[in-house]
């Protein structure tokens, strides 16, 4: 019979376990928030169903079937809503209630907190993509080739990084109420006129200008990859620039208290 070991083992848990626990908690909080679920899941699905049903009445003429054209745009809208609007609102109110300040007294380092937020964000986006693609397939969407899917994954990750960095910059520099108002306003403006849902060619004289916006680059990049199965090099470059600039500004001006 071995001797019972009652010696203490002080110390924090390994970083990966702290990050995993933080990510699980962040994901649960996001999915329990009805407003965030509505913005992340129901609004994109509504845009897909209404868009397919009303494209002809709206006078939209595409080179491919309506469902094939709208599905990449709806995926872009979903990624944008989670990476920007939902993340900005959640982080803004965490600052207001002092949650981030209290986490500073825990063993979880700042980079661990950000890693947890990113993992939670990716988890919710995976759920988004599964739900949107399942509904699109049921409506007759032709899935992309393997090469197109790989380019779509690259564009989606870079787009999420770009919008997430600007969401943290917004949430870390202004009050929570202002973050709520600004993020919702930006979301509505980009959804209506940012080149997300439909090809930028439908926006007339400002079409080339929209390609330099993160919303236009994300939407057009996903259409290039998932609809045509081609490389989306220009969109990748634009989104990478937005992500780097947003990350630099967020790391410089984000206020933790």
TrEMBL record:
InterPro entries: ABC2_TM, ABC_2_transport, Nod_factor_ABC_transporter. The keyword Transmembrane helix applies. The chain crosses the membrane at residues 37-55, 75-93, 114-137, 149-173, 185-212, 232-254. It is a multi-pass membrane protein. Its main location: membrane. The keyword Membrane applies. It is found in: Membrane. Keywords: Antibiotic resistance, Membrane, Transmembrane, Transmembrane helix. Residues 18-213 form the ABC-2 type transporter transmembrane domain. This is ABC transporter permease.
């Amino acid at each position: 019979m071995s001797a019972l070991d009652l010696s203490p083992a002080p110390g924090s848990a390994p970083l990966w376990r702290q990050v995993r626990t933080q990510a699980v908690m962040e994901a649960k909080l996001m999915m329990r928030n009805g407003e965030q679920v509505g913005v992340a899941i129901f609004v994109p699905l509504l845009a897909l169903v209404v868009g397919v049903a009303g494209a002809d009445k709206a006078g939209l003429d595409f080179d491919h079937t309506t469902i094939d054209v709208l599905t990449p745009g709806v995926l872009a809208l979903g990624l944008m809503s989670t990476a920007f609007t939902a993340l900005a609102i959640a982080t803004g109110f965490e600052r207001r209630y002092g949650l981030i300040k209290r986490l500073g007294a825990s063993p979880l380092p700042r980079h661990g907190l950000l890693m947890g937020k990113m993992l939670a964000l990716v988890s919710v986006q995976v759920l988004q993509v599964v739900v949107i693609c399942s509904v699109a397939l049921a409506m007759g969407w032709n899935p992309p080739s393997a090469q197109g899917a790989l380019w779509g994954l690259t564009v989606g990750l870079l787009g999420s990084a770009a919008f997430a960095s600007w969401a943290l910059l917004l949430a870390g520099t202004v009050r929570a109420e202002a973050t709520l108002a600004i993020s919702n306003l930006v979301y509505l403006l980009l959804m209506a006129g940012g080149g997300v849902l439909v090809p930028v060619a439908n926006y007339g004289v400002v079409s080339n200008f929209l390609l330099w916006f993160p919303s236009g680059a994300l939407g057009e990049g996903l259409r290039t990859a998932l609809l045509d199965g081609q490389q989306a090099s220009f969109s990748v470059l634009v989104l990478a620039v937005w992500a780097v600039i947003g990350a630099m500004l967020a790391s410089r001006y984000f206020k933790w208290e």
